[in-house]
Design a protein that fits this description.
Chains A, B: It comes from Novipirellula rosea. The structure is a homodimer. By secondary structure, chain A is α+β, with helices and mostly antiparallel strands. Helices cover 31% and strands 23% of the residues of chain A. In chain A, the strands form 3 sheets. Chain A has a 7-stranded mixed β-sheet with strand order 9-11-8-12-10-13-14. The first copy, chain A, has a 5-stranded mixed β-sheet with strand order 1-2-7-5-6, covered by helices on one side. In chain A, strands 3-4 form a two-stranded antiparallel ribbon. The first copy, chain A, is globular and about 55 Å long. At the A-B interface, helix 1, strand 2, strand 5, helix 4 and strand 6 of A face helix 1, strand 2, strand 5, helix 4 and strand 6 of B. The structure holds adenosine-5'-triphosphate (2 copies) and magnesium ion (6 copies).
Chain lengths: 346, 346
C-alpha cells in the first residue's frame, strides 16, 4: 500500500476509488455518502424542521467539486466555466434541477487580478446559461508557492421532482447504454495544450451545462434508470462504477462509440485510449430497451446531444465487469483507469 | 490599486472586503450574495419545484468556507475540526439548524496518508459532536509544490425555523452587544505555534461548534437581531461590517471585553491587538436592551458561553463607525483590519 498521496489518487480511477473507500468512507461512511452517487439526496421536512428521509418535504440534491485544472484558460473554456458546469452537471445527472451554487476561491499570492476577473466573468456567464444563482462564497489566500494561481470549489443545490429516483444501482440486464456525444474532447484538449502539441483541426473542450438536456430527456422518458457524467477516469471508469454498483455486466461495442477524428489522432500520438479520457459536457444514460430509440431521438434533437449514440447494453453475465467488442472483432475487458494518466484535468 | 492578489486579500479585513466587492460582487452580485450574510437564505417551494422567495416551503441556509490553516495540527484542534466547526458556525449564527455538510479535499502529492487519516477522524468527531452528517465529497490531487499538504472546503446546509429573520442589517440604536467568551484564542494559538513562541500557560484554540449555544439562545430569546462569528479579522472587523450593514454606530467598552491573560501576553509580545485576532468558537450577538440580561444569563449557563459579556451597544451616533472607550478612559475609532496581519489562520 501507499503511505503518501500519489498523483493517481486524483485520477478518478482505481486509486481514487481506493483512497475514498479506505480513508474517507471508512471513517465518515453513512447511507448517503457511501452510495457514491454524483449528488447526495436529502429530504427536508418543512413541518418539523428536522431532517427526515422519504417524507413529504422537498428532496434536494447536494454535490461538491474542487477545480484545479492547469492551464486555467484552454480552448473551449477555463477553470471558471468548468467549476460551474461540473457542479451543475452532477446535479443534473442525478435528475435534479440545479438552482444554487456556492464558490470558494483559494488564491495564490501574486495571482493577477485581471485573470481572476476573467474567470469570474466566465463563471457569471456559465451561471446565466445554466440558470443557476451563485449565492455564497469564500476567499482565502495562500502564500506564493503554496498554491497554484487559483483553485475553485463549487457546491450545488438542486431540487428533485417528487417521484424520481435515479441511482447508479438501478441498471438492469437488458437496459441500453447511450452516450450523449463524442468522448475525450475535454481531456485531450487539456493534454495537448499542456504538451504544446498542435493539431491540424484544433481540439476544443466540450465543457457545457447538461441540465437542459437532462430536463428534456427526463420529460420525454421517465423510465431512465441512471445518468452519470464521465469526467475524470473517462467513460471506462464510469461504466465500471456502474457495473459494480448495479451488480450487472456491461457489454460495449467499440465501433459505436463516437470519437472525433482529432481526438483520435491526439490519443494515438500520446498513446492514450479515449475511453479513459475526461469529458466535461457529456453524459451516459441507462434506459430500458423499449424506450431506447425514443430517448435517442429526443437527445439527438438537442444541441448537447446531437452526436448521441447507443454504445452497449447491460447484461446478466460477467457481473461487475465491462467487456468491449473491439473494432477488429475480439473481446476485451475494459477496466477502471489504473495509473495516473494526467493530473489536474479539471 | 493592486494588480495582483496580496496576502491581505485573505485577511478578513479591508482588503478582503474590497476584493469581494470589486471582483466578485461587481460581476456576480445578486440580492442574496450581495447581502454578505454568513449564510445565504434560500426558499424552496415543495409544490412547484421552483425557487421562490418568501413562500411556504422550507427556508434553507447555505454557506461555504475553504480552510488553508498552517500548521495543520495545533493546540486545541486541527484543520479538520476547523473545517467542520467553521461551516457549522456560519449556519448557526444565521439562526439555522446545521444538518448536512460536503467536504472537498485538495491534496498535495506526497502528503502523508496517516496525517490525512488523523484529519478525517477529527472531522468525523466534529460532525458527531455538532450533529451534522457529511453526505458528499470530492478529492483532487495537485503536483508537489503546487499546494500545501491539504486544503479543505466545506459547504453546509441548514434549516431555518419558520419565522426567524436574523440579518446583519437588523441592529438598532439601543441594542446591546454581547460576545460569547474570550477573544483572540484561536489566532494567537496559530501565531505563537508558527513563531515557535512558548508561553507559560499554553494557548489553545477555541475552535468549537456553536449550534447548541445558538439553539438555546434563540429558544430563550426570539428577539435576537443579529449573530455573527468573528473569525478572520476578529471582533473589530465583524463589528465594522455590522455598523456599515445596519447603518448604525457601535460603542464599545474596552474594560468589558474578555481576553485571556495568556492571549493578552502573546498579543503584547507580537505587537497585536486581540480585537483583530481570529476566533473559531465565539459569536457576537445583538439583542434589544430589555432582553439583554436574560440572554446573558442563558449564555453563561452554557459551556460555550460561560465567559459571555456585554461589550457595548448600538448607537444612533457615528453611523458606520465603531468607537471604543479605552481602559485609560479615552475614545478611539476601531477600524477594520487594514493590513495582512497573518495569513492562513483558518
Ligand atoms: N474526500 C471524500 N470524502 C467523502 N466522499 C468522497 C470524497 N471524495 C469523493 N467522494 C465521493 O465519491 C464519489 C465519487 O466522487 P468523484 O469526485 O469521483 O465524483 P464526480 O464529482 O462525479 O467526479 P469529478 O470529481 O471527476 O467531477 C461521490 O459520491 C463523492 O461524494
Ligand atoms: N469569492 C467570493 N464571491 C462571492 N462572495 C464572496 C466571496 N468571498 C466571500 N464572499 C461573501 O462575502 C461575505 C463574507 O465572507 P467571509 O468569508 O469573510 O465570511 P465568513 O465565512 O463568515 O468568514 P470566514 O471565512 O473568516 O469564516 C459572505 O457573505 C460571503 O458569501
Ligand atoms: Mg459526476
Ligand atoms: Mg463532478
Ligand atoms: Mg468565509
Ligand atoms: Mg462567519
Ligand atoms: Mg466562515
Ligand atoms: Mg467530484
Amino acid at each position: 500500500q501507499y503511505e503518501r498521496v500519489l498523483l493517481g489518487h486524483g485520477s478518478g480511477g482505481k486509486l481514487s476509488a481506493d483512497l475514498i473507500q479506505r480513508v474517507f468512507l471508512a471513517e465518515l461512511g453513512n447511507e448517503v455518502l457511501s452510495s457514491l452517487e454524483d449528488s447526495a439526496t436529502l429530504s427536508l421536512d418543512s413541518q418539523t424542521n428536522l431532517p427526515n428521509h422519504r417524507n413529504s418535504g422537498p428532496r434536494i440534491a447536494f454535490t461538491t467539486d474542487s477545480f484545479v485544472v492547469k492551464p486555467l484558460f484552454f480552448p473551449g473554456g477555463d477553470i471558471g466555466k468548468l467549476a460551474v458546469h461540473g457542479t451543475v452537471n452532477d446535479l443534473a445527472v442525478a435528475g435534479a434541477t440545479p438552482l444554487y451554487l456556492s464558490a470558494a476561491f483559494i488564491l495564490e499570492e501574486g495571482f493577477a487580478i485581471e485573470s481572476l476577473q476573467r474567470i469570474v466573468v466566465s463563471m457569471r456567464q456559465a451561471c446565466d446559461e445554466a440558470g443557476v444563482t451563485l449565492v455564497t462564497g469564500d476567499t482565502k489566500v495562500v502564500d506564493r508557492g503554496k498554491g497554484d494561481e487559483v483553485f475553485i470549489t463549487t457546491t450545488g443545490i438542486g431540487l428533485h421532482a417528487a417521484n424520481r429516483e435515479l441511482s447508479i444501482r438501478n441498471a438492469r440486464p437488458g437496459d441500453q447504454i447511450i452516450v450523449s456525444g463524442t468522448i475525450g474532447d475535454h481531456g485531450m484538449t487539456i493534454m495537448s495544450t499542456r504538451e504544446g502539441i498542435e493539431f491540424e483541426t484544433a481540439l476544443e473542450s466540450d465543457t457545457a451545462p447538461l441540465n437542459d438536456l437532462t430536463r428534456v430527456m427526463l420529460d420525454a422518458c421517465p423510465s431512465i434508470r441512471v445518468m452519470r457524467d464521465p469526467t475524470r477516469g473517462g467513460v471506462s471508469s464510469t461504466l465500471n462504477e456502474l457495473a459494480t454498483a448495479s451488480k450487472v455486466g456491461i457489454s460495449l461495442d467499440e465501433a459505436s462509440i463516437p470519437v472525433r477524428a482529432e481526438v483520435h489522432s491526439a490519443c494515438e500520438m500520446l498513446g492514450l485510449d479515449p475511453m479513459y479520457v475526461a469529458n466535461e459536457g457529456k453524459l451516459i444514460v441507462v434506459v430500458p430497451e423499449q424506450d431506447c430509440q425514443s430517448l435517442l431521438t429526443v437527445m439527438k434533437q438537442h444541441s448537447r446531444g446531437r452526436d448521441a449514440a447507443v454504445i452497449g447494453s447491460v447484461v446478466a453475465d460477467h457481473t461487475g465487469m465491462v467487456v468491449m467488442r473491439s473494432l477488429i472483432g475480439g473481446q476485451r475487458v475494459v477496466t477502471m483507469l489504473a495509473g495516473e494518466q494526467l493530473p489536474r484535468i479539471c
